[in-house]
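Exercise 7.
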Amino acid sequence: MAHTIEQFSSEVHAVLAADPGPAGREKVRRLLEDVLKDEDFVATHLGDDQPERRVLYEDRELGFLILGHVHHNARRTKPHDHGSTWAIYGQAVGLTHMDEWEIVEPATAERPGKVRRARSYELTPGDARVFNEGVVHSPWRDAPGKQVRIEGGHIERAGRPAFEPA
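Solution. The predicted structure, written as tokens, is:
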């Protein structure tokens, strides 16, 4: 089935309006996995000429965003969570390695928290993963890749603490 951003965002809105918690997010994850298999959707919203991060849709009522990410280079991010919000990462093209971390020492305003790697896995095209509030993770890529990510709200406003490996 061909997907449009209008149809997809409407489905996400309906699911999250009915259940904004973890069970609703899991339903959205499954919807995203279906969208990631749509080559036309991926080509339309994740073209090679796109910026690294672009808002495809912002829901004014519920506050969630659907983002297109076109990673032009390899990159490793530091362990982080999304503060008071959540995210769903969906792999469209390429491979993302994902590490999840266990908090050993919580972060404070004065110093970063300490974390220990709990597990590692790969996101391949068509895979999507929910990261609820407080789940510390760090994606990294050896090569370019493309993702659709759904955020529960603007992460730059979510008070994200800093973490470093213990």
